[in-house]
Amino acid sequence: MRGNPTEPEKRLWRHLSNSQLDGHKFRRQAVIHGWIADFLCPRKGLIVKVDGDTHEPVADARRDAALAALGYRVVRVTNGEVMGNMDGVLRLLRETLETMPDRRAPHPNPSPEGEGPELAVPFAGRQPIMGFED
Q1: Judging by beta carbons within 10 Å of its beta carbon (0-12, 13-18, 19+), is residue 82 exposed, middle or buried?
Q2: pTM for the full model?
Q3: Which PANTHER family does the entry link to (predicted)?
C-alpha cells in the first residue's frame, strides 16, 4: 500500500470520507484481489481510481475487466478533473452510484434479536482470475 496519497486523492477523500457523498461509505487504499483501489464503496462495489500522469492504459483495462468479472465497477478520473472540476467528479460518482444495486442482500433468516455478524461472501465458489489471487 502507498503511504502518501497524492494531493488529488487527499482532495477527493475530503468529499468522500464520513459518508459525505449521499450517505455512501467509502474506504481508501482498499486491497481487492491484490490490487489497491484508491477508493472503494463496499456496499455498491464501486471502485474510484484517480489516474495521475503516469499509468498503463493496457494494464488498467485488463485490471478493470478482471475486477468487473468479480462484480466491481471501476470509475477512473484524472488528477486534472479532481483538481479542476470537483463538482463534475462528484456528480459522476453520484450518478454512477444511483445506477448500482447494493451488493449485500438482507440475510434470508435474520437473527430474531437483529444481532449477529453481517457476512457477505460475494464470490464464493468462483475460481480466482489469473493475476488476482488472494
Answers
A1: buried
A2: 0.75
A3: BLL0828 PROTEIN
